Design the sequence.
C-alpha cells in the first residue's frame, strides 16, 4: 500500500519541481536517498521516510512565488493531508507521515524516529558538500551577494537542526569545507 502512495508522492513532487525548479529534483533525490540510507541504518520505516521526504518541500516553489517560504511546511502538510485522505493507509502511518512533513525543519521533541530522520536527512541539502554544491548550481534568481547570504544562512540553520549523532559525525568534516567556501565567496 505504501508503495502506491510513494509513487503518488513522487509524481506530485516531481511535477511541482518541474514547474518551479524548487527544490531542484536533483536536491530532492539526494536527500530522499540519504533518508532511506538513515532509515535502513537506524531501523526505521523506510517507506514512511521516503514518502515524507518527497512531500516535505513539494510546495516550496509555489510558496516562494507567493512570498510565503516560511509557510511551505504547512502548505506541504495541507497537500499531504489531501493526498492521504485519498489513500487506504492506516491512521498510524498517516499520522507519522504528517509529523515527518511538518517537523522536517526541527522539533523540540520529534513525533517518531522517522520524523527525526526526515529532519536530519533534509539538513544534507545545505550542510553537506554535495547538497551545498547542488544548491549553488540551481539557485540563480538573485544577486551573487544575496545567494551567498542565503546559502550561509541555510548552512547555519541546517547545521543547527541536526540531532542524530550519525549525521553530525558524518558532516563535521564537511562543515569546514563549506565554511571555507563561504568565507572565500564572501570576499570575492
Sequence:
Amino acid at each position: 500500500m505504501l508503495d502506491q502512495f510513494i509513487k503518488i508522492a513522487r509524481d506530485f513532487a516531481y511535477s511541482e519541481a518541474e514547474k518551479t525548479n524548487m527544490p531542484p529534483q536533483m536536491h530532492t533525490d539526494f536527500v530522499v536517498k540519504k533518508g532511506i540510507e538513515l532509515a535502513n541504518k537506524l531501523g526505521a520505516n523506510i517507506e514512511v521516510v521516503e514518502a515524507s521526504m518527497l512531500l516535505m518541500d513539494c510546495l516550496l516553489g509555489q510558496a516562494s512565488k507567493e512570498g510565503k517560504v516560511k509557510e511551505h511546511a504547512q502548505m506541504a502538510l495541507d497537500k499531504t493531508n489531501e493526498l492521504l485522505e485519498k489513500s487506504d493507509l492506516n491512521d498510524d502511518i498517516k499520522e507519522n507521515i504528517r509529523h515527518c512533513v511538518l517537523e522536517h525543519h526541527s522539533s523540540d521533541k520529534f513525533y517518531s524516529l522517522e520524523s527525526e530522520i526526515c529532519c536530519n536527512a533534509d539538513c544534507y541539502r545545505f550542510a553537506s558538500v554535495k547538497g551545498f554544491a547542488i544548491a549553488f548550481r540551481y539557485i540563480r534568481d538573485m544577486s551573487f551577494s544575496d545567494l551567498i547570504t542565503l546559502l550561509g544562512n541555510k548552512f547555519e540553520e541546517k547545521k543547527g537542526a541536526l540531532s542524530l549523532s550519525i549525521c553530525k559525525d558524518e558532516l563535521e568534516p564537511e562543515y569546514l569545507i563549506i565554511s571555507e567556501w563561504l568565507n572565500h565567496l564572501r570576499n570575492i
Notes: The chain has one domain: 2-186. Residues 165-186 form the longest helix (22 residues). The mean pLDDT is 94. The radius of gyration is 16 Å.
